[in-house]
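Q: Hi! First time doing this. I have a protein sequence and I read that you can turn it into a structure. Is that right? Here it is:
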Amino acid sequence: MTSSRPYRGVPLEERQAERRRKFVEAALSVYSERGYHNTTLRDVCEAAGLTQRYFYESFENAEALLLEAYTTVTFGLIEAITPPSEPCHHDCRERARAMLVAYFTALQADLRSARVFLLEIRGVSQRVDDGVNEAITRIADIILELIDVPKTEFTRMLALGVVSGISQMALQWIKEGCQTESAAMAEVGLALAGELLRFECRPDHQG
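A: Yes, that's right. Below is the predicted 3D structure, encoded as structure tokens:
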């Protein structure tokens, strides 16, 4: 039975959170080096400097850790490329272009991680697929907030299509060796998002 008393002044909850963070960091490092399918639980535990006992305290199985690593990377990237300002009104297209350039540039800068979280994660299991789809839906909602358009069923589905399409573009781009410049990929993504960006000029649309 695990004691809930503080150890060296650190509460149990904080120790558990720190161990969970170490497992995620270890997974990101090992996945990037070897790929998810070539990584064992022992590899992750050794990289984290923790035992399997602590792993199962934090995660149900390897798929749960993969999903945690995926959301950490995905939303960390979204936060990194999101301009630190209020929702736009007149410069949405330029902000979108800058975000897309930053997105494709970041993927190209860390291709090993990008391959794991765009290619290898596909088809691991239904649970992982559901987690990826949930993340894409959340990102679509974030995009709607950034460009400040009415949240109707129409705009939600449109944003979801844009995010899914750009993700598929990135996947194919990486599979083909990133032969196209990041700026050119951003323009393709911007063209795909064009209808959503124009929507702010039609606030009377009811979906």
